[in-house]
Amino acid sequence: MRSRFPARASRRGLLALATAATALVAASCTAGSTSDGPQPAPGPDEQVTITVSSQFTDRELDVLNRVLDGFHAQHPNITINSQGNQDDDKITQAIRGGNPPDVAISAETINLGQFCSSGAWQDLGPYLQRDRVDLDQIVEVSQKYTEFDGKRCAMPLLADVYGLFYNTDAFARAGITQPPKTMSELTDMAKRLTEFNPDGSIKVAGFLPVLGSQANHPWNWAPHFGAEWMDQQGKSVLGQDPAWQEMYRWQKELVDFYGWDRLVQFTSGLGQQYSADNAFQSGKIAMMIDGEYRTGFIEDTTPDLRYATAPFPVADAKPELYGTGFVTGTIIGIPRGAENAGAAWELVRYLTTDTNALVELANGLKNVPTTTAALHDPRVETSEQYQTFLDLFDNPQLVPSPPSPNGSAYMKSTEDFSVKWQSGQVGDLGAALRELDGQIDAAKALGGN
């Protein structure tokens, strides 16, 4: 099984996502116009073919297509042309070229701000209002990451939730009986679980503190310190919010424990995150942060691995945050200039509000359904490890990354800074974070926002 999510950003490259901003802005100028008001659904005798573009391939595309077949069975007059392996760049190119798909599915939630602000994806508000769709049926956090600046240009399809994975055999050997709940506990357990080779190199890391490696990213860690990205005006506040310094100083303690040179050597020998020799699955890391999709990887490739899951630990001074976590997901919308917007909306509404469709997608793709009804449906296939993430998704404290008009640019800048910090290239942390704020705000200003 292969995830399309968050770490998605690291897998495909945040730089590519950041540079997509210019293309999306251009798309708003070159795509076909949208008529005022929502387009009507085709009549039962009106034969329509709609194109659906998604990033899915292979088995995952098969899962989507089975659900699309279910829609066609209910709407035999609407034929679906499903096109897989279409990432945001390809879809944007189609919009710019005046030949957009009728429905676009994106695995890059962080691009939502671009889609909405540029007009590349249509505002779905008129459709929701016309058909009296109750948005409260959608889990609150998913409502948040599908709206930007008062405009809802997407609906949530499935979600990813991040938590703690830990090797229960390693815990037993170290005499640890419970997962950590605070960062100091995580630090202590990481040291107890770590094993060194005779030459001093790392054999097993209790927890890998290297940002940019595996699923370790600033956006995955930040919610557990209560760190804020932006103020209400959209200005970067990394240098003003003390939680960011707390997060980086916590990381530095573990980096110093291992030694940066040792960590570089260790990470260079780890398997790819989305391969069968993943570091956690191969026993190289005893604890890690990752999304619910990892349970599917483990089931497929290392079913004998003894492990458990829990909420990821939080800052010692903020125990009330325990149970929070980073969340993102797949989003779906109607591109500007879509030829059959009325029929497209029928499919979008079906995929995002029909319980049967969401349960089938969730079971096939091993991601969390985004409506309350589907989340609690007894047909959702679960396990003790997977249930942790279903429970987490019920937590109103879950945190998405704030959407921005220039997409993931601020996230890439923060990860670039993190690489310098952890390798000892940053002196005054507070001053460096304030400088980073200036860089992020300047980049956003250059984009015209």
From TrEMBL:
Signal sequence extent: 1-31
Keywords from the UniProt entry: Signal, Transport
Pfam families linked to this entry: SBP_bac_1
PROSITE patterns with a match to the protein in the record: PROKAR_LIPOPROTEIN, TAT
InterPro entries referenced in this protein's UniProt entry, alphabetically: SBP, TAT_signal
Domain of life: Bacteria
PANTHER family the record matches: MALTOSE-BINDING PERIPLASMIC PROTEIN, MALTOSE_MALTODEXTRIN-BINDING PERIPLASMIC PROTEIN
Family membership noted in the UniProt record: Belongs to the bacterial solute-binding protein 1 family.
Protein name per the record: ABC transporter substrate-binding protein
Organism encoding this protein: Saccharopolyspora oryzae
Source species taxonomy: Bacteria, Bacillati, Actinomycetota, Actinomycetes, Pseudonocardiales
